[in-house]
């Protein structure tokens, strides 16, 4: 039996943009929500806050859970996964902790890792999960 990985995902929107991580494979660029795997004994919200702060240098507030999605690699096309992956993703609505962060363009995030994408432009971008736009709008795929 393969282990199940719990992964937290941050849906951070600001000024009609969403913050995504930029990745590359043989087919070119693709985008994911910032994420962090859960450590044993750690609450999901704590996982996400710790992981994002460690990677970006910015603190986030983690709010309501938007969606839960289970994946088994043999049923999905995702370039990140090994053949035996069994993963449960927990999507949370998040925002930056500092009140003064009101403009996405003024954040000093590593442009090699993060990219702000217009919410209206998600259709034209290779993003995983492919139904991210529906998850953000309706809470389901």
Describe the fold and architecture.
There is one protein chain. The chain has 141 residues and is mostly beta strands. The chain has a single domain, classed as Nucleoside Triphosphate Pyrophosphohydrolase. The protein has helices at residues 44-56, 132-138; strands at residues 5-14, 17-25, 28-32, 35-37, 60-72, 86-96, 114-118, 127-128. Strands 1, 2, 3, 4, 5, 6, 7 and 8 form an eight-stranded mixed β-sheet that branches. It is globular, with a radius of gyration of 15 Å. InterPro entries: NUDIX_hydrolase-like_dom_sf. Keywords: Hydrolase. One of its GO terms (molecular function) is hydrolase activity. This is NUDIX hydrolase. It comes from Chengkuizengella marina.
What's the SSE blueprint?
Elements: E1 5-14, E2 17-25, E3 28-32, E4 35-37, H1 44-56, E5 60-72, E6 86-96, E7 114-118, E8 127-128, H2 132-138
Parallel strand pairs: 1-6, 3-8
Antiparallel strand pairs: 1-2, 1-4, 2-3, 2-7, 5-6
Distance linking N and C termini: 28 Å
Enumerate the spans where pLDDT stays under 50 for 5 or more consecutive residues: none
- Named CATH topology: Nucleoside Triphosphate Pyrophosphohydrolase
Second rung of CATH, namely the architecture: Alpha-Beta Complex
> Structural class, please?
mainly beta
CA-based shape: globular
Keywords:
mainly beta, eight-stranded mixed β-sheet, Nucleoside Triphosphate Pyrophosphohydrolase, globular, 141 residues, 2 helices, 14% helix
């Amino acid at each position: 039996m393969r282990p199940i990985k719990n992964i937290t995902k941050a849906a951070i929107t600001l000024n009609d943009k969403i913050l995504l991580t930029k990745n590359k494979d043989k087919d070119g660029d693709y985008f994911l929500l910032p994420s962090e795997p859960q450590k044993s004994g750690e609450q999901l919200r704590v996982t996400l806050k710790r992981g994002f702060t460690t990677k970006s240098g910015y603190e986030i507030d983690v709010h309501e859970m938007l969606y839960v999605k289970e994946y088994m690699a043999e049923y999905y096309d995702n370039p990140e996964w090994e053949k035996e992956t069994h993963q449960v993703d927990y999507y949370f609505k998040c925002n930056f902790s500092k009140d003064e962060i009101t403009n996405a363009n003024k954040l000093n995030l590593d442009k090699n890792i993060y990219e702000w994408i217009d919410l209206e432009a998600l259709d034209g971008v290779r993003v995983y999960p492919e139904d991210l736009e529906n998850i953000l709008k309706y809470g389901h795929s």
